[in-house]
Amino acid sequence: MSVIKKLTKASHLIDMNDIIREGNPTLRAVAKEVSLPLSDEDIILGEKMMQFLKHSQDPVMAEKMGLRGGVGLAAPQLDISKRIIAVLVPNLEDEEGNPPAEAYSLQEIMYNPKIVSHSVQNAALSDGEGCLSVDRPVEGYVIRHSRVTVEYVDKNGEKQRIKLKGYNSIVVQHEIDHINGIMFYDRINEKEPFKVEDGLLLID
């Protein structure tokens, strides 16, 4: 059975065993464009990827399934070399612990996403980045664009264009890197991992 057939079976829930780790050549390949109109298989795969992210952020399901929390997942991380990513960025509680009005600041399955424009200013997460395909901590600032405009096709086959900044921008760039065979630590300055260039925006 092919990987995509296994993952898109109705009974299958994606878990950490389905996620390939660094060293696997699929993570270094440039993934293929998804053909349009979208196949049922590609639509289901996107939905399964989103379901994984929701499970990974749910403390009960995450513990039950042994999941690491994630805000993004790309098809190559499942050993499927296709240009599909899912992103799920929760809004945080306010200072008094009240839940946000909207659960997520970004919730989207993107087919063939591409960055069509970006800011001159760069940004990095102050705590660095992690990845479900990397089982070790890698310290350093991952230098990315602070703002990006992304075009993609949604699961209904509609073309979309969104502008992103801050954390959402970083998450989407991390996932788009995956479909281009780029790992987050490729963007860390090897000699000076915590070097702050002029104008670098550090995001908490």
UniProtKB/TrEMBL annotation:
Its EC number is 3.5.1.88. The active site is at E175. Keywords: Hydrolase, Iron, Metal-binding, Protein biosynthesis. Binds 1 Fe(2+) ion. It catalyses: N-terminal N-formyl-L-methionyl-[peptide] + H2O = N-terminal L-methionyl-[peptide] + formate. It holds the Pfam family Pep_deformylase. It comes from the Bacteria. Removes the formyl group from the N-terminal Met of newly synthesized proteins. Requires at least a dipeptide for an efficient rate of reaction. N-terminal L-methionine is a prerequisite for activity but the enzyme has broad specificity at other positions. This is Peptide deformylase. It comes from Streptococcus porcorum.
